[in-house]
Write a structure and sequence with these properties.
The structure is a single chain. This protein is α/β, with parallel strands linked by helices and 278 residues long. The protein folds into 2 domains: 69 residues, Orthogonal Bundle (Arc Repressor Mutant, subunit A); 200 residues, 3-Layer(aba) Sandwich (Rossmann fold). Helices cover 35% and strands 26% of the residues. The strands form 3 sheets. Strands 5-4-8-9-10-11 form a 6-stranded mixed β-sheet, sandwiched between helices. A 3-stranded antiparallel β-sheet has the order 1-3-2. The longest helix is centred in the first third of the chain and has 17 residues. It is globular. Belongs to the purine/pyrimidine phosphoribosyltransferase family. PurR subfamily. Keywords: DNA-binding, Transcription, Transcription regulation.
């Protein structure tokens, strides 16, 4: 059955959005819609232009018999600024301040619409980076890591505070908490991370950096490579953090009168260069 171009454009867009970072052959679309490959190429050109204009992502076409279309989520700087500004407004509420300088984020990281936008936002940073695995620790950052993994089309692994019998044999490391200075332990199943894998660490909140440092140690134990670290928000910390090079969407600061100030983190300056501001 032959399908009209307007219908094809809608379904092609849907398929690409649901299969990011995957090369889809022209033959796949041609057979599905009963259209010539030349017509599909024209459709893809329209989709590519539209996604670029709205700052959603980029569509690359690969020529040749084994070629096709490849969609990668990429937020424009304008879209990134909009998302971060909305988050700043949501977080700047003194009632979110918790003892120890932490901030309550569970309600935000449980909202699908926020996870979708933040997942695509962080995935934008790694659009041209070879990533194999997303890593997080068993905290509130799990949904965030899962969202990033979905938009990068990569698996994610969860570092545990204690071993589970269903995990099989594990590798464990001891690390020092950046805030409490206590020694803790984290573990990761031997089957979840391959030697030489390129890893991105995702967490919900950064304070002293002890948890991040522990995950870095685990990555070294597996002879894998760290390619980036991202957090939803970073808090203030008196002293020197145990890690550097972490990209944050938000930065929150507690005042002496228990007030809470939120502002954009370093994501915009880290990701968008002068050449890539469009």
């Amino acid at each position: 059955m032959k399908i009209r171009r307007s219908n094809r454009l809608v379904d092609i867009t849907r398929y690409l959005l649901e299969h990011p970072h995957k090369l889809v052959s022209l033959k796949h679309f041609s057979e599905n819609y009963g259209a010539a490959k030349s017509s599909i190429s024209e459709d893809l050109s329209i989709v590519k232009k539209t996604m670029a204009e709205f700052g959603i992502g980029k569509v690359d076409t690969v020529p040749g018999a084994s070629g096709g279309a490849f969609f990668a989520p990429r937020y424009s700087k304008a879209n990134a600024e909009r998302v971060i500004a909305d988050l700043v407004e949501l977080i700047a509420d003194p009632s979110r301040l918790l003892p120890g300088g932490y901030v309550y984020l569970s309600d935000l990281l449980g909202r699908p619409e926020i996870l979708r936008e933040v997942g695509q936002l962080i995935a934008t940073q790694y659009i041209d980076t070879d990533v194999d695995v997303i890593m997080t620790v068993e905290t509130k950052g799990i949904p965030l890591a899962q969202s990033v993994a979905m938009y990068l089309n990569k698996p994610f692994v969860i570092v545990r505070n204690s071993s589970h019998i269903t995990e099989g044999s594990t590798v464990s490391v001891n690390y020092v908490s950046g805030s409490s200075k206590r020694i803790k332990k984290m573990e990761l199943s031997r089957r979840t991370l391959k030697q030489g894998a390129n890893v991105v660490i995702i967490d919900d909140f950064l304070k002293g950096g002890g948890t991040m440092k522990g995950m870095q140690s685990l990555i070294k134990e597996f002879d894998a490579h760290l390619v980036g670290m991202n957090v939803f928000a970073e808090g203030q910390f008196d002293g020197e953090r145990l890690v550097s090079g972490v990209t944050s969407l938000l930065k929150v600061t507690a005042g002496p009168d228990d007030s809470l100030t939120a502002q954009a983190g370093n994501f915009l300056t880290q990701v968008f260069t002068e050449e890539g501001n469009e």
